[in-house]
Design goal:
Elements lengths: L6 H6 L5 E2 L5 E2 L11 H6 L6 H13 L6 E5 L5 H6 L5 E6 L2 H10 L6 E5 L14 E7 L7 H11 E12 L9 H20 L5 H10 L18 E5 L31 E5 L5 E4 L1 H9 L7 H4 L2 H11 L6 E4 L2 E7 L5
Parallel strand pairs: 3-4, 3-6, 4-5, 6-7, 8-9
Antiparallel strand pairs: 1-2, 7-12, 8-12, 10-11
Helix pairs in contact: 7-11
Protein name: Methyltransferase type 11 domain-containing protein
Keywords: Methyltransferase, Transferase
Family: Belongs to the methyltransferase superfamily.
C-alpha cells in the first residue's frame, strides 16, 4: 500500500525530530535537518565580512573584554566559529541539530581549541558554568530560538563585562542602482513565500522564525537587570527612514503574524553602509540563494513573470551579473558587572 505524504509531512521528515506522547514526530528546531548540503549553503550565502568581526571585537575590547573563552550558539556547521577560533583561546560550539554539530566537529581545526555540545541555546546555562564565557555569538540563528530564554541563559554564562553579539541578514536583497530589480525581487519572493505557506510547505516553527527574522533582531529584548544600558542595534545597508527593511513578504492575515518587537528606550540605533556585505551575482546564484533558505522555492518560482524579468535584467549586466547587497541587523550588548 502506497503511503501518502502531505507537503508539511515531507518537510518535517527532512528534519531531526522527537516523537511525542501521541507517537507523532515533533520538529522543534526548524534548521536542524538530517542532511544538508553545507557546501552549497556556503556557496549561496554571504561571507561574514572582516568589517563585522572588527566591529565586534573592537566593541568587546572597548568594554574590557578578554579573548580567552567564547561560545558560538546555534553554530550550524561552525561558520562563525571558524573565525572566532582565530581570536579566542577556547571556543564552545553548540547547536540543537546533531547533523549540524557533526559537520562543525569534522570541519573546525585545531580540534583541541573547540569543545562541542549538542543542545539548544535556551539551555546554555545547563552545561556552561556561570560567568565562564567572555564572548557569545549567534549568527543567523536567533530567529529560530526562544529569544527571552536564550538571552537569560547566555547572560548567566557570560562574565561581567562580557559581550553578547548577534547578526541576521535579510532575504530582501538590495540591488544598488537597480530599483526595478529590487521591486521584482520583492514581488517574486513575497508571492512565492505566501504560496508555500498556503500549500502547507512551511510548518509553524519555520513561519515563526521567518516572521522574527524580518524584524532584524528587534524581536530580541536585552533586560536591563542583565545588560548594560545602551545596547547597540546596528543596521547595515539600511536607511534610517526605512520602517521594514528586512521584510520580503506581504502581510496576509491568517497565514502569518508579525513578530512582536522589544526595543528598549535606552537601546541605540546605528545605520551604516557597508558594500562588503555584498557581491556580484548571476541568475543561477540568485536561484541558489533563495533555495538555500530551505523554504521550498523551486521551478514554480523561476517561471513567474517577475522572476523572468529579473533574470533578464541580470543577464544584461556585465558578464551576466548584477551587484547585490544584504540588509543586516546586528546587536551588541554588554553583561552587567553588578548583575
Amino acid at each position: 500500500m502506497t503511503r501518502t505524504v502531505t507537503a508539511d509531512q515531507a518537510l518535517a521528515e527532512r528534519h531531526e525530530a522527537e516523537v511525542n506522547a501521541d507517537g507523532k514526530r515533533d520538529v522543534k528546531y526548524a534548521f536542524a535537518f538530517k542532511n544538508l548540503d553545507w557546501e552549497a549553503y556556503h556557496r549561496f550565502r554571504p561571507v561574514y565580512p572582516e568589517s563585522m568581526w572588527k566591529q565586534w571585537f573592537d566593541y568587546h575590547r572597548s568594554h574590557g573584554g578578554k579573548f580567552e573563552t567564547a561560545h558560538d550558539a546555534g553554530s550550524g556547521p561552525g561558520t562563525a566559529a571558524t573565525v572566532i577560533g582565530q581570536h579566542f583561546q577556547q571556543v564552545f560550539v553548540s547547536d540543537a541539530g546533531a547533523s549540524n554539530l557533526a559537520t562543525a566537529e569534522a570541519t573546525l581545526t585545531p580540534r583541541e581549541k573547540f569543545t562541542f555540545h549538542q543542545g539548544p541555546a535556551e539551555k546554555t546555562a545547563e552545561w556552561l558554568p556561570p560567568a565562564s564565557v567572555d564572548f557569545t555569538s549567534i549568527c543567523m540563528a536567533f530567529h529560530y530560538m526562544d529569544s527571552a530564554a536564550t538571552v537569560r541563559a547566555v547572560a548567566q554564562t557570560l562574565k561581567p563585562g562580557g559581550t553578547f553579539a548577534a547578526a541576521t541578514y535579510g532575504f530582501r536583497l538590495l540591488f544598488p542602482g537597480q530599483p526595478r530589480a529590487e521591486e521584482l525581487w520583492y514581488k517574486a519572493t513575497s508571492r512565492e513565500t505566501l504560496r508555500l505557506m498556503r500549500e502547507g510547505k512551511l510548518f509553524p516553527a519555520a513561519v515563526r522564525g521567518l516572521a522574527r527574522a524580518m524584524t532584524g533582531l528587534d524581536f530580541v529584548a536585552f533586560p536591563s537587570d542583565l545588560f548594560e544600558k545602551g545596547v547597540r542595534r546596528v543596521y547595515v545597508n539600511v536607511s534610517e527612514n526605512e520602517k521594514r527593511p528586512l521584510y520580503f513578504v506581504d502581510n496576509e492575515p491568517g497565514l502569518w503574524e508579525e513578530a512582536q518587537t522589544f526595543v528598549a528606550p535606552t537601546d541605540v540605533y546605528e545605520y551604516i553602509q557597508d558594500a562588503t556585505w555584498g557581491r556580484q551575482a548571476d541568475a543561477a546564484w540568485l536561484r541558489g540563494f533563495l533555495a538555500s533558505s530551505q523554504m521550498g522555492f523551486d521551478d514554480t518560482t523561476w517561471t513567474l513573470d517577475e522572476w523572468k524579468e529579473l533574470e533578464a535584467i541580470v543577464g544584461s549586466g556585465p558578464n551576466g551579473t548584477i551587484a547585490v547587497e544584504w540588509p543586516v541587523a546586528i546587536t551588541l550588548a554588554t553583561r552587567k558587572a553588578d548583575a
